[in-house]
Amino acid sequence: MKLDDLIGLRFSYDAVGSTRYVETPPGYHRLDHRARIGGGDEVFRRATEALMNWKMHRKAGVRVTATDSPAVIGTNALGRAGVGPLGLPVPCRVVWVADEPDRVGFAYGTLEGHPASGEESFVVTREPDGVYFTLRAYSRAGTWYARLGGPATRATQKLVAQRYGQALERLANP
Question: Can you tell me the distance from the alpha carbon of 108 to that of 111, in angstroms, rounded to the nearest whole number?
């Protein structure tokens, strides 16, 4: 699968945009991860630039290419899960973007062919006590092999969320 192949793909779930809200759609597993990544305007600026330009993903070890950088609504992104050429394609599309003075981020949803089905959001906020990275996701297995993975798949998702936070902290605090 190539990035150009994503143009005609549909979302693999119905509740598109739901990571903006507190409630998780029925039948999905939810993941929330929040980490303080530093403090001050420069940390916020560097973190938001790294997030919106896919640097956080790459620093965390996720091989990703995208049609737009910075991310905008409708950006197609193609990641690879696994090692080398045997990695599985993980196609996604950006469904919302936040661009506020103290809150910047985006969410992408899974497309047909993704091992999971659901949505993941990545947001950096500037708060009185520091700069925070928040990841919110809801997902369920989208393929037989993801169902087979069960709890191991969810544990991997938690590990990747932690890696995203650590990567963003390193990028924001050189």
Answer: 9
- Annotate 82-100 with b (16+ C-beta within 10 A) or e (fewer): eeeeeeebbbbbbbbbbee
pTM: 0.90
Instruction: Determine the pLDDT at residue 146.
Output: 65
H or E segment to which residue 158 belongs: helix 144-172
Tens-place pLDDT, residues 122-131: 999 999 999 9
Q: For residue 116, what are the CA distances in angstroms to 100, 102, 174?
A: 30, 31, 34
Over the chain, what is the mean pLDDT? 89
